[in-house]
Structure formats: structure tokens, C-alpha cells
Specification:
alpha+beta; 3-stranded mixed beta sheet; 33% helix; 20% strand; membrane; transmembrane helix; Sigma-X negative effector; transmembrane
Length: 403
């Protein structure tokens, strides 16, 4: 039994044991007695002098009685106060944990495609794809930049031909010449990426083949992530112009990579090894790019697009709009994507809609195919003519950079 409970019961018992006081006098007898004692005679007020030593017993007794009552009441409620305090602390902790759990779920639960709306997205709906027809007066410079998650992000820059001529003396340089001249001039950190280029060692070309001679301390194989970034960067930078790259050491011998072993075969820059589908990748600064999903490859375009309808991980997010279902038909050089319900692009965020259209176009282009959309409400939207197969792009993620 709690102590405060024991004190209360004992006090009650003590009060019950106290003698009962009775008074058999009538009201008149009591009044007359008080009158005879002079209780009703007016007396001048008694002012106690500052040096008076007398004790005023009545106020003192009242104070003692009040203190006793306060102690009694305090003892009764002390346990309840402690209980309330503990319960409040428990509630506060539970509330904090619940809020933290909610925050965690908002950032970690990526299985639902609707979570795409939780990202900070651009409000722009401009195309980022580049087509052959856009290359008049400019030179395409493609490069794979190092993203926040140790994966290469393919970006493209259109350099005015006069700048190319000024730097190289020609308006028709090879891709390697373009790379050796302009990659050292890139301020990658200013662009939001990690410093990575130019690649270590020496690069040279032999026809449609590149030779990359690496120094002993290249560091590209310190982890599986750094190795993936290296290979991805080679594809994103040189994939349009060369078939393969041979990687060797300073002695011209086959390089041994940790996590891979010897690179006896040339690393392919085209073909089935680069048949990707495209997802949305967001940098920590909020910039969004279309990028292969950890370089996952597919044997055909149908499987690649079907795979885009699911969230794969917390790095790469599907570009397919929430609640959208589609059907894919592969017909030679053209792949037809039909939406099960008529798709009204104006009902969606313009930037999200653009990312879906561009992601599907890039995926088809990865298989060297054009794409045709069926059952889109708009016949023309943001520069796209959906009444016919769309032009196959030669690059994506257009960035503007002043060299």
C-alpha cells in the first residue's frame, strides 16, 4: 500500500477516535453570555507598535492549520502528480517517435509510385533531349559526370562551332579530341557533381576502338561503386562514337581490377551491354536527370519498358506517372506504347509528364528504335507530335555551359 494512502486512512481513524463535543445550551443562553462578556461593545482598534514583543496567536494558529492542510493535500496528490508526469513523458516520447517514424516512412517507403510527388521537382516542361536536326552550328559534347551516389549521370552540352574551332582549330574534331579539350574546362562541382574528369591515365583511339592506359594508382577499383562509375562514365562519354575500349596498364598488359579480375576482353560501349531503360535520378541539390537504373540491361525493349512501371530502389525512381497503365508492342524499328486509359497530360504536373515521355523515348532509343504513343489526348504537346512516330534522340539531359 502506498504511503499517502496509509496516512489518509490513519488520519481518518484518529479523527473517529477523538471525543465528540456537545453543547446543550440554547441560542438565547449563548447570546446573553456573549453580551454579558462585552463581546458586542465597540473597542478602539489596537495598533501593535513595531517594538512590541507580544505574539499574535490567532494568525499563527491559522497559518499552522493552513500548512497542515496543504501538506495533507500535497501528500494525497503527490503520487498522482508523479504518475501524470510519467504518463506525459511517455506520451511525449511516443509522439516524438511517431513523428520520426512518419518522417522515416515518407523518405524510405518508395514502393508506391505515388511517392514520386514527394520529391522536389522542376516546374519546367522543356525538353532535355537532343536530336540530329538540332546540330546545325553546334557540336554535341556528351560526358558521364559523377553523381552523388557513385554512379555516372549522362549529360549533354551543345558547344558553338566557333568555340570548337577556337580551341581545336577545326569544327569536326573526333569525340576523343573534344573530350581531351573540354573535359578539363568543366567546373563539375559548380554543376552540382563530383570532380571526376579528365580521366586518369592516357586515352588514345584506334579506329572505332579506344585504348585507356591506366596508372598504378588510378583508384577506379577501390570499391564496386567506383568501378561501376568508371565503366558507366566510359559508356556515357564515348558510347556514341566508339565500339569498345581496351583497358591496360603502363606496360600494355591487361589490367586486373578488384571486384572484376582481369579485363581480358575489351569493354563494350554499344550493343546489348548498353540496352538500358531510363529512370529519374535526383541529386541532393534538387536537380533531376534521366539515367539508367544501375546500368541494368534487357534483351528487348518490351521487358525494359515493363520494368519501368515499378519502383526499383531509393536512388532511381520510375518516371511512369502514378496510376498509369500501358501496353507495349515491338514492331521492328518502331515500338508502340498504348495507354490503357486516354492520357490527358494537362492533368499532371508538366515536369513529371515530360520526364515520363522522355524516359520512354530514351529507353526505345537505347534499343535503336523510335517510339509511337497511342491514346494521348493531346496531339501536340511541348514540341511533341503524337500523331506519328517520334524522332529518335541522340542524347539526353541537355545542360547549358559556357566554355
Amino acid at each position: 500500500m502506498k504511503k499517502e494512502r496509509w496516512d489518509e486512512e490513519n488520519l481518518e481513524q484518529l479523527l473517529k477516535q477523538a471525543p465528540k463535543v456537545t453543547d446543550h445550551r440554547t441560542k438565547d443562553e449563548i447570546f446573553n453570555r456573549l453580551k454579558d462578556d462585552g463581546a458586542f461593545n465597540e473597542q478602539p482598534p489596537q495598533i501593535q507598535q513595531p517594538n512590541q514583543k507580544g505574539i499574535r496567536w490567532a494568525p499563527l494558529l491559522v497559518s499552522i492549520a493552513s500548512l497542515f492542510i496543504i501538506v495533507l493535500i500535497g501528500a494525497q496528490f503527490l503520487g498522482n502528480d508523479q504518475s501524470i508526469s510519467m504518463e506525459q513523458n511517455t506520451f511525449d516520447m511516443a509522439t516524438t517517435e511517431s513523428e520520426e517514424s512518419a518522417k522515416m516512412s515518407r523518405t524510405e517507403d518508395v514502393s508506391d509510385p505515388s511517392t514520386i510527388s514527394n520529391f522536389s521537382l522542376d516546374a519546367q516542361a522543356e525538353q532535355t533531349l537532343i536530336y540530329e536536326s538540332q546540330l546545325e552550328g553546334v557540336t554535341l559534347f556528351k560526358i558521364g559526370l559523377a553523381g552523388d551516389d557513385a554512379e555516372s549521370v549522362p549529360v549533354s552540352i551543345l558547344i558553338p562551332n566557333e568555340v570548337v574551332v577556337d580551341k581545336l582549330g577545326t569544327d569536326n574534331p573526333t569525340t576523343l579530341e573534344l573530350y581531351k579539350t573540354f573535359s578539363p574546362l568543366l567546373d563539375e562541382q559548380m554543376m552540382g557533381f563530383n570532380e571526376y574528369h579528365p580521366l586518369k591515365g592516357e586515352l588514345r583511339e584506334e579506329g572505332d576502338r579506344l585504348i585507356h592506359t591506366l596508372p598504378d594508382d588510378h583508384g577506379y577499383d577501390t570499391s564496386s561503386a567506383t568501378l561501376s562509375n568508371y565503366f558507366g562514365s566510359l559508356v556515357d562519354t564515348f558510347g556514341n562514337s566508339y565500339e569498345e575500349v581496351q583497358i591496360e596498364d603502363a606496360k600494355g598488359e591487361v589490367v586486373y581490377f578488384d571486384y572484376v579480375g582481369e579485363t581480358a576482353q575489351s569493354f563494350q560501349l554499344k550493343g546489348e551491354q548498353t540496352q538500358y531503360n531510363y529512370f529519374m535520378y535526383q541529386m541532393r541539390d534538387g536537380a533531376v536527370y534521366s539515367s539508367p537504373n544501375f546500368r541494368m540491361t534487357f534483351p528487348n525493349v518490351t521487358e525494359a519498358i515493363d520494368n519501368m512501371t515499378t519502383e526499383a530502389n531509393d536512388i532511381y525512381r520510375t518516371v511512369i506517372l502514378p496510376g498509369i497503365s500501358l501496353k507495349v508492342e515491338d514492331e521492328g524499328d518502331i515500338v508502340t506504347v498504348t495507354f490503357e486509359q486516354a492520357l490527358d497530360l494537362e492533368q499532371y504536373d508538366a515536369a513529371q509528364a515530360m520526364r515520363m515521355i522522355e524516359g520512354l523515348i530514351l529507353t526505345a532509343a537505347s534499343f535503336d528504335k523510335q517510339i509511337k504513343f497511342e491514346k494521348i489526348v493531346q496531339e501536340n504537346w511541348s514540341g511533341f507530335d503524337f500523331t506519328k512516330p517520334l524522332e529518335k534522340p541522340i542524347a539526353g539531359n541537355l545542360l547549358f555551359y559556357n566554355f
